[in-house]
Each structure stands twice: as structure tokens, then as C-alpha cells.
TrEMBL record:
It comes from Rhinolophus ferrumequinum. This is Phosphatidylinositol-glycan biosynthesis class X protein. GO terms for biological process: GPI anchor biosynthetic process. Residues 1-21 form the signal peptide. Keywords: Endoplasmic reticulum, Glycoprotein, GPI-anchor biosynthesis, Membrane, Signal, Transmembrane, Transmembrane helix.
Length: 276
């Protein structure tokens, strides 16, 4: 009878636990690492794709980011793309200012003493910050467009082209659960602590200091996000001159310069009015 009564009590306790929404699990399963694994399992992988559009020496670098359909509250997050432009390309800061005035793009040059007229062999890598915008044609997607231009390169002895490798950028994210710029914390009064925004907890690698917004001089701590790139990098082919053409080019240039100068002098003496 005592054994039967004990069995009834055990069954009753199990029913009460199940009715309360609790399940039996070892104590180790309720620790913080298990909760971290659960959050990581719910996060979709971040995918980044960059491609260069248009032809000629003036191109558009398009960067698209997809954060995954399972991620919620993206309206509280901002994406910042930190790109390193190789010496063979340049970004015109005056063009960026014009695009900002027309509300087409939000980007700013970080590098100082930047010369857009210098050839590639007298230039160095530059840094650009581009604030991505939500893509209306894709769910949970962001997009940024950056105009880039080819620099002049040294002539080659044989090949009439040179390669420019455009590496993948750094992807920075800043989220605000309250809808304003600030550190994201989700308050759980029942547990008496704060947890990071799930996507930041999943993929954030480090923190980077950068302006909170293009028109805001305040500095915020952005999370440097880990992502999967569609392409390892983008390689551009730039046409260059050949050294064997140097005598011909110099001769033709000199002849045209002399001819034009002669025509100008003739026109000045023929139609000009001189007073003594």
C-alpha cells in the first residue's frame, strides 16, 4: 500500500509539472551555455553579396545584405558597411556629398589627405563608411550603392590589362530595442538580468567605434558581424597602355601640340587687335 501511495504521488507531481509547462531535464541543461546554443540555433546566417555594375572607368559598387527571415525587429537595427578601397580605385568625396544632398546614398570618406587625381602607383588604400538602407524588394535585406572610379595605372610591357582585387568589407550592426540609437538590451524582470539582441549574440565578433549616423557626430560602438560572402572577392580588369607604344604616343602628342599652338598663333595675328 505504501508503495502504491508513493507511485500515485509521483504521478501527481509529474502531471502538475506538465500542466505548469515544465519538463523534466537535468540541471546542466538549464545553464547559460544551453540558452546560448538555443539562441544561436534560431539565428539565420547573414549573407553578403557585392558586385560591380556599369562599364568603363566609372562603376557602381552594389552591396546587398540578407539577414534571414527568422530575425525579428529589424526596424530597430542599422547597418554600416566599412569598405577598404584599393589604390587602383578612388571614391569622389564631392560626389558622395552630392548623393547625400539628393538623398540617394549615405556615405562618407574616412581617409584624410585624399587625392582623386593621383595615379594608382602614387595612391594608397582608402576607407569609406556606407550606411546601408532597407531593400524594399527583399524581406530582411539591406542595400548600399557606392560609386567607384578607376585610377590611371602604369603601362605594361606585354599585357594591356591589370587586375584590381576588391576585398569584402566589414559589416557593422547597431540595434536599438527601444527604437532610438543606443545599446540594445532586452529586459527580463523575471530573471533579473539583460540579454543581448539575439543576432548580435549570434554573430558579433568585436566592437568598432564609428559615427552613430552620417549627420550625427556622436560615436557609437558598432558590432562587427560575421557573415557568409557569396563571392570571396571581386576582381576588376582595367585597361592600361603598352610601353612599346610610348614613342608613337609621345610623337603624335608633340605634333598635335605644335599644330594647335601654331593655329592659335595664326588666329591671334590674323584677327587680333594690337595697340602700340
Amino acid at each position: 500500500m505504501a508503495a502504491r501511495a508513493l507511485a500515485v504521488q509521483v504521478v501527481a507531481w509529474l502531471l502538475l509539472w506538465e500542466a505548469a509547462g515544465l519538463t523534466w531535464a537535468p540541471a546542466t541543461a538549464l545553464t547559460a551555455p544551453a540558452s546560448d546554443a538555443g539562441i544561436r540555433a534560431t539565428c539565420s546566417e547573414i549573407i553578403l553579396k557585392q558586385e560591380v555594375l556599369k562599364d568603363g572607368f566609372h562603376r557602381d559598387l552594389v552591396i546587398k545584405v540578407k539577414l534571414g527571415e527568422s530575425i525579428e525587429d529589424l526596424q530597430t537595427c542599422l547597418l554600416l558597411i566599412k569598405h577598404y578601397i584599393p589604390s587602383g580605385l578612388f571614391v569622389d568625396p564631392y560626389e558622395l556629398a552630392s548623393l547625400q544632398e539628393r538623398n540617394i546614398a549615405e556615405a562618407v570618406m574616412v581617409s584624410e589627405n585624399y587625392n582623386i587625381e593621383a595615379p594608382s602607383y602614387l595612391s594608397k588604400e582608402s576607407e569609406v563608411l556606407v550606411y546601408a538602407r532597407e531593400d524594399s524588394q527583399c524581406i530582411n535585406c539591406f542595400q548600399a550603392v557606392l560609386p567607384v572610379h578607376y585610377r590611371y595605372h602604369r603601362p605594361h610591357s606585354k599585357d594591356g590589362e591589370t587586375s584590381i582585387v576588391l576585398n569584402n568589407p566589414d559589416l557593422l550592426m547597431y540595434c536599438d530595442q527601444a527604437g532610438s540609437i543606443g545599446m540594445i538590451r532586452i529586459s527580463f524582470a523575471a530573471f533579473g538580468k539583460a540579454l543581448e539582441f539575439p543576432i548580435l549574440k549570434c554573430w558579433a565578433q568585436s566592437e568598432v567605434a564609428a559615427p552613430c549616423a552620417l549627420k550625427n557626430k556622436d560615436i557609437c560602438k558598432w558590432s562587427n558581424m560575421k557573415y557568409k560572402s557569396v563571392y570571396r572577392n571581386v576582381t576588376l580588369q582595367v585597361p592600361v597602355g603598352l610601353t612599346i607604344h610610348t614613342p608613337l604616343v609621345c610623337s603624335v602628342t608633340l605634333l598635335i601640340t605644335i599644330l594647335c599652338a601654331t593655329l592659335i598663333l595664326v588666329a591671334v595675328f590674323k584677327y587680333g587687335h594690337f595697340s602700340l
